[in-house]
Amino acid sequence: MADKYSILLPTYNERENLPLIIYLIIKALDASKFNYEIIVIDDGSPDGTQEVAEKLQKFYGEDKIVLRPREKKLGLGTAYIHGIKHATGNYIVIMDADLSHHPKFIPMFIKKQKENNYDIVSGTRYMGDGGVFGWDFKRKLISCGANFLSQFLLQPGASDLTGSFRLYKKNVLEELVNSCVSKGYSFQMEIIVRAKSKKYTIGEVPISFVDRVYGESKLGTNEIYQFASSLLYLFATV
Amino acid sequence: MTMLMQWLQVLVPAGVLWLSVAATFLKDKSFFEQESAFVQFLLLLPLLALIALGVYAAGTVLYKTFTFNDCTEASKDLQKDVAEAKEFLKKNKLVD
């Protein structure tokens, strides 16, 4: 059976970005002739994201755009589980729907995966020509510091632990998500650490991340505390 | 085996070894009364290792921060792509 790629798009209030990201995904994947579907998982967005999704589905077709909404904001881990349940592909791509991840990298992930039949391909901002647009010095310092600490303690075999732009074999993602307990950034980190302990192979592709959250701080003391405690938890238990 | 256990597997024997060496030499003489500078170096080794680690960590983190890739091209390309997408969507009446 041919390979099919299910792209999971968890959305919350992405009314403006959803048509744009879907256009770019379809552009990137139609050009490379891969077989794919886009699964939009909207958590009851009050801004009408779901209506926009339905319009797009009517235009592009139900086999390309699959809608699996939920009633309210239920978190990323359960969104993945929900998406996997409805995915008809044998590979799953997870990414952000706010244009910080550019779909042009998806064909690169696919190519990388085939190189060595990797179980996971992770987009990395910390290796090669990967990077981030929109981070000031302080933000870069915190990220590099956190990355160093987690590399030093966990030796994970992947340079970007908190990234969320990845390609997984479906059965691998399913198993990993079901064994994870963290939330937020830590969830992405826990997936990689557990993958390593279960001896899954991880390939990396440098990506550019265009930070779209202008002015707002995605990195408060709460997130930092949660990251640190998650790091210690993984250090001691995995 | 957890990472913690891997670390302990190295640190505990090393720690015990250092403690026994330290105990032997400090039994009769204090640190400053030691005859051999090499012995004093051994006694200070854990502290020196910690300092070296700290310097390495700070250096690496600062280096990575200063050489961090700012992806300005990626941002410009994204703006172009967004403009192209918006044109397509308007033409097909998918956005207002």
UniProtKB/TrEMBL annotation, chain A:
It is found in: Endoplasmic reticulum. InterPro entries: DPM1-like (IPR039528), Glyco_trans_2-like (IPR001173), Nucleotide-diphossugar_trans (IPR029044). Its EC number is 2.4.1.83. Pfam families: Glycos_transf_2. Residues 6-176 form the Glycosyltransferase 2-like domain. Pathway: Protein modification; protein glycosylation. Its main location: endoplasmic reticulum. Its cofactor is Ca(2+); Mn(2+); Mg(2+). Component of the dolichol-phosphate mannose (DPM) synthase complex. GO terms for biological process: dolichol-linked oligosaccharide biosynthetic process; GPI anchor biosynthetic process; protein O-linked glycosylation via mannose. It comes from Cloeon dipterum. It catalyses: a di-trans,poly-cis-dolichyl phosphate + GDP-alpha-D-mannose = a di-trans,poly-cis-dolichyl beta-D-mannosyl phosphate + GDP. GO terms for molecular function: dolichyl-phosphate beta-D-mannosyltransferase activity; metal ion binding. Keywords: Endoplasmic reticulum, Glycosyltransferase, Magnesium, Manganese, Metal-binding, Transferase. This is Dolichol-phosphate mannosyltransferase subunit 1. Belongs to the glycosyltransferase 2 family. Transfers mannose from GDP-mannose to dolichol monophosphate to form dolichol phosphate mannose (Dol-P-Man) which is the mannosyl donor in pathways leading to N-glycosylation, glycosyl phosphatidylinositol membrane anchoring, and O-mannosylation of proteins. The lineage of its organism: Eukaryota, Metazoa, Ecdysozoa, Arthropoda, Hexapoda. GO terms for cellular component: endoplasmic reticulum membrane. It is an enzyme of class 2 (transferase).
